[in-house]
């Protein structure tokens, strides 16, 4: 897919990270790619590159190729804080990213998301089966209000979260969750609104 042309918008100068792997849900990922850019934001798709410069993944619905060139591994706290939001998408992405060679060591993606939860300035977005990635770091959502795919309600409750039956749920000012990939437009709308409000509160600073 060709590079998208950013336009000036309320989120100009804002960076949003979206995790990516194979079996991604094309309608969701392609929507984020365009919708956030429409508001002026830079969208960075991060993955585990396994020492390579790039990896081409395929989508779940139509096997559409998607080439990722950016990794979440090795990012400093300062680099992590440069993202206004970190999104864990729907589908099989989080199941693939939660693989670890040593079961006594957190998967790099789980470690990255855990670090994001430690940064209140970073808005966290988890949708649908994205909660799979948080299974080994349940403390990140313990006591928090969330929504997830119906198949994962037991999982999030076992992680100590409070399930809320709504398409999109905002808990505090740093966690947005969505029911399924089919609700990506509502989920993204909530994220955009929060980031626009934050930027306005900061006087428009990026």
In total, the number of strands is: 11
Strand line-up of the largest beta sheet: 5-2-1-6-7-11-10
Low-confidence stretches: none
SS-derived structural category: alpha/beta
- The SSE string, one letter per element, is EHEEEEHEHHEEHEEEH
What is the top-level CATH class? Alpha Beta
The appropriate CATH architecture is 3-Layer(aba) Sandwich
Features:
alpha/beta, two-stranded antiparallel sheet, seven-stranded mixed beta sheet, 6 helices, 206 residues, Rossmann fold, 28% helix
What does it look like?
- With 206 residues, the protein is an alpha/beta fold.
- It has one domain (15-199): Rossmann fold (3-Layer(aba) Sandwich).
- The protein contains six helices and eleven strands.
- It has helices spanning 26-38, 77-81, 93-97, 108-117, 153-158, 184-201, and strands at residues 15-19, 42-47, 55-58, 65-68, 70-71, 85-88, 123-127, 145-146, 162-163, 168-171, 175-178.
- The strands form three sheets. It has a seven-stranded mixed beta sheet, with helices on both faces.
- Strand 8, helix 5 and strand 9 (162-163) form a beta-alpha-beta unit.
- Helix 1 packs parallel to helix 6 (184-201).
- The two termini are 27 Å apart.
- The model has no long low-confidence stretch (mean pLDDT 96).
Secondary-structure blueprint:
Elements: E1 15-19, H1 26-38, E2 42-47, E3 55-58, E4 65-68, E5 70-71, H2 77-81, E6 85-88, H3 93-97, H4 108-117, E7 123-127, E8 145-146, H5 153-158, E9 162-163, E10 168-171, E11 175-178, H6 184-201
Parallel strand pairs: 1-2, 1-6, 2-5, 6-7, 7-11, 8-9
Antiparallel strand pairs: 3-4, 10-11
């Amino acid at each position: 897919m060709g590079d998208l042309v950013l336009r000036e918008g309320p989120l100009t100068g804002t960076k949003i990270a979206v995790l990516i792997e194979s079996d991604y849900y094309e309608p969701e990922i392609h929507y984020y790619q365009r919708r956030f850019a429409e508001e002026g934001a830079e969208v960075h798709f991060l993955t585990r590159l396994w020492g390579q410069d790039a990896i081409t993944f395929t989508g779940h619905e139509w096997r559409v190729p998607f080439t990722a060139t950016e990794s979440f591994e090795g990012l400093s706290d300062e680099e992590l804080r440069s993202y206004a939001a970190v999104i864990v998408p729907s589908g099989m992405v989080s199941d693939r990213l939660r693989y670890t060679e040593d079961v006594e060591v957190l998967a790099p993606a789980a470690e990255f998301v855990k670090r994001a939860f430690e940064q209140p300035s970073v808005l966290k977005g988890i949708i649908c089966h994205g909660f799979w990635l948080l299974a080994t770091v349940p403390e990140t959502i313990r006591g928090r209000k969330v929504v997830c795919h119906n198949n994962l309600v037991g999982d999030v409750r076992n992680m100590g979260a409070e399930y809320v039956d709504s398409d999109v749920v905002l808990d505090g000012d740093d966690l947005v969750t969505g029911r399924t990939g089919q609700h990506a437009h509502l989920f993204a709308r909530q994220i955009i609104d929060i980031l626009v409000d934050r930027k306005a509160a900061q006087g428009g600073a990026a």
